[in-house]
Amino acid sequence: MRVGMAGLGVMGSAMARNLAGAGYLAGVWNRTGHRAEALADELGVPRAETPAALAQACDGVITCVSADDDLCEVVDAMRPGLRAGHVLVDTSTVGAATAEALADELAAREVAFIDAPVTGGAEGAAAGTLQVMAGGDATALARVRPALEAIGSQVTHFGPSGFGQRAKAVNQVLAAGMVQAISEALAFADASGLDTEQLLPVLGQGAVGSRLLERRGARMLAEDFEPGFRMALHEKDLRLSQALLQSLEVNLPMVEMTLKHYERLMAQGHGDEDMTALYRLKRELFRTGNRRSL
Ligand SMILES: NC(=O)c1ccc[n+]([C@@H]2O[C@H](COP(=O)([O-])OP(=O)(O)OC[C@H]3O[C@@H](n4cnc5c(N)ncnc54)[C@H](OP(=O)(O)O)[C@@H]3O)[C@@H](O)[C@H]2O)c1
Q: How far apart are CA 133 and CA 122, in angstroms?
C-alpha cells in the first residue's frame, strides 16, 4: 500500500520517517509548505501541493493535525482526490463525534475512515512504538494495518467509528492525573531540600514508576518545558474527554481541576510549552506558601 502523510508536526513528521523506513511512504503534505519540502527532501519522497494531490497519488492517507476543525478542513481539501477504495486514517486526537460523522459521510463515497489516535508521545512517535487505538471498519483497518505497524508497536481495534477516540479520551484523563501527581510530588521534593537526582531513580523503580516520570521528571525539575506534548493540545483533549463525560452526566474532579490549571497557565502564555509546565503552578505554591483554594 502506498501511503501519504498529511500533517508534519511533532508527531506526523516522526510517523512519516517510520513509514518511509518501512517502504510505505509515497508522499507528504503539510499546510506550512517549507516543513513538507524539508521532509520530502530528507526522505526522498514527493511533496504534494494539496491534500487532494496527495490522496490521488496514494492508496491511503494518514492525517495528523491539531484538532477537529483542522481535520475537517484537511479532509475537505482532500475530497477531490479521493476515490472508492481509499482508506483515510486519522491519528489526530479529535472528538468521537467528528470521527463518526466523517466516517459516515465518506462511506457514502466508498472511502473508509479509520479513527486511530495514538499514545506514546513524541518519543514513541520517533521510535515507532506508539499505541494505535483504532475505530472503524475492520476490513479497511486490516488493509492499512501493516503501515500502522510501522508507526506503532501495537494497533488495537476497539470497535466501530469513534471507539479509537473514546479509548484516547480515557488515556488523556489518566495523563491529567499523572501530570498532576508528578508535578506536585516533584515540587514538594524540591522544596523539601531532597537531592532530586538521587530521588528520581528511586521513585522510578518503585511502585509509582511511570514513563512520564522517567522521561519528563528531570526536565520538569530543570524547568525545561520544551514540547513534547503541548499544553494547549492536552487542554483540547481534556475538553473532548469532558464532552464524552457530560454525555454520561458526570464531571470528573481531576479533569475539571486540570482544565482550570491549564486555563490559568495558557492565559499567562504557556500554552505552547509542554504539558509538564503545570509544574510552574506547583512550584509557585511552595514559593509563596499559597494556600488559596485550587
Ligand atoms: N505531541 C504528542 O506527544 C502527541 C501525542 C499523542 C497524540 N497527539 C495528537 O496528535 C496531533 C498532532 O500533534 P503534534 O504534537 O504533532 O502537533 P504539532 O506539532 O502542533 O503539529 C500540528 C500539525 O497540524 C497541522 N495543522 C494544524 N492546523 C491545521 C489546519 N487547519 N490545516 C492543515 N494543517 C493543520 C500543522 O501544520 P503547520 O505546520 O502548517 O502548522 C502541523 O503539521 C494532535 O491531535 C495531538 O493531540 C500528540
A: 16
